[in-house]
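Lecture 7, part B: from sequences to assemblies.

Below are the input chains for today's worked example.
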Amino acid sequence: MKADIRVALAGNPNTGKSSLFNVLTGLNQKIGNFPGVTVDKKMGFMQLPDGRQAEVVDLPGTYSLYPKSKDESIVFSVLADKIDTARPDLVVVVLDATNLKRNLLLYTQIADLKIPVIIALNMMDMARTSAIQIDVEQFSKKLGVPVVPMAVRKGEGVTELKQAIAYANKVALQPDSIDVNVFAPGLIGQISNELQVDNPYLALQLAHQHEHLRYLSAEQSERIETLEQEHAFHSQKAQAAETVARYNFINDLLYDTVKTPEAAQHESFSNRIDHILTHKVWGFIIFMGILLFIFQSIFAWSSYPMDLIEASFVWAEDVMRNLLPEGPLASLLIDGVLAGLSGVLVFIPQIAILFAFISILEDTGYMSRVTFMMDKLMRKVGLSGKSVVPLIGGFACAVPSIMGTRTIENWKDRMITIMVTPLVACSARLPVYTLLIALVVPDKSVWGIFNMQGLVLTAIYVFSLVSAIIVAFVLKFILKVRERGYFIMELPVYRMPRWKNVIFAMYDRSKAFVIQAGKVIIAVSIVLWVLASYGPGNKFEQIEQKYSSTEFKITNSPEELNRVIASEKLESSYAGMLGHAIEPVIKPLGYDWKIGIAIITSFAAREVFVGTMATIYSVEGDTDDIQSVQQKMGNARNPETGLPVFTLATAFSLMMFYAFAMQCASTVAVVYRETKSWKWPAIQFAYMAVLAYGVAFITYQLLK
Amino acid sequence: MDLSQLEVGQTGIVKEFTDLEMSVKLMEMGCLPGETVKVTRVAPLGDPIAITVSGYQLSLRKLEASTIILQ
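Predicted structure of the full complex, as structure tokens:
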């Protein structure tokens, strides 16, 4: 889509920036990458009242333009990069009307870069309830920019904002908020001259940030470094002086335009909630209760839609079998693609529910309370309170969580968090766990309120968190770095979750899961089908011939015969050979060669396990008898002993293996991107493999 | 007297900082010399603490609070 104008949304965290982005762009959005960095770039399109198309980019939420963390350095580089195609024509700075003072710091910095700006003065409804009086007209006049009062949650001001964007100036008309030349006299002028920068504040920021800016050449960056030394430039002192000057400007501005009552009302309400939610005893009990509730719900609420999806796949399989002529194509489509796909799609309800809860916890402000409560505990094991959110996010998916560790400023804290996050039971393991639990754990209620299967799942989730913490504790002594981290963090006031955002999160994540995981899984399913359906030489023909003799036809029914033939074919196929090759290694863990195939394919992604199981048992199974994967696996018998393949010991050993092994290509890739070296993903892969094998071995030997 | 010595409910006015790096971050968050700060709560395990400053709630560790000198 070609856009006529490019608009960026900037603002502090918790200002409703993402809500505004969702309201402006609707479902017309996508996730891209900022060039050269790994921070997700959320962008979308919207129609302006005058018919033009605007591209909207949602910048990460920041408190200032100084790069304290990786996420934050993006904002400046996008705004300053002259050659970057992402450079916006207009910035909409979203301000929280109930917290203007701190919000305005970022605004004055962006305004001083002399990019055309519009202020979206959000949360006006909350400001009104708190009796905060803002003279919007005066406010706009003093700053020299359009100000649109809004209440995005209620849909107020959206039309006005769109109009303001349509009528926005092409050049910045706002006056300087402060004189920046005093912070680095001489240096600013020289940088401006030599690099042809026409804006003094941009020149000052180049002095601060030249090392992180992609578009500066190495010579330019070195030149700035030399100039800084010549002028005895001290970056932090200059930053401190600038911040003080900006707050002086802001205080003057607010004195004339805003009247705030002594104690804001919503704050005391928030305080009352905090009394309970961060209480010494209740705080932790409530937190555990919430976690338990989430995992119980995932099981309880998803069963109906999951049954529905499963049933429709069984139906589709049936229809296709009747429609398509029997042959390799039908077999590929049904046993390969369809079987693999059903294994993935069936977990959409669970993933959607999990992400709904995570987005509610974040949206209400509860997540930062969890951080607040857990910090001391987390620091004991070498993590930071800020590691809690990535770790809990790890329950959903390690990939965004590892990207989320960018908010941790301390290198060692961040490294340890990255190393242990993949141990937390992610949603990709959920299919594996639910399938295996359903196979070996009875569906009984315990004490009348809990479901036994749900309890086992909760236990596995808690266990995964405990193991992550133990590993972190060990790493704390291995990684030795002298660097300090800080924990200066906003505790936003409690708010009702924005249901639209929750629905967006559910939709977004499920879509990403289906597209990203789906691609891998379909590819793996097809490769697997080929491996399982063909074998070296003329082995398959020999098997057919062996059983075509009349003596077999007399003693066995045709169904039995087909099953035996299919089973022998699978065993002598390429996949069977691969499985047999690793069987000696995995036998002590209680796995046969078929599970071996699933483990190998699962190194692409864990959820492939289910699809692989489905494919293996479909290829082998009787084609007329259509069953779900779970039934197929439950019926699986060891050909030698006649006992079920999936015993309690095997199933739990398998769950332990999946709990610890790094079976996720995307996580390996994201750890590489985040750490910029293969060393860390390699160490991570190795330690997790050793743990997986060890724990699975012990589990099987104990339960056997 | 520094911020970490205040009890819950007590207020003080920021005078200066003992740590430049920390001060840059604190000032960015609206915790500047001349601002009134109030300790609103302490985390269940005794650390970190939450303060009210510039009209919102900020949490920080006691060690960090000890770099903020009060008037």
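Note for the exam: Chain A touches chain B through 45 residues (CB under 8 Å). Keep this in mind when comparing with the next example.
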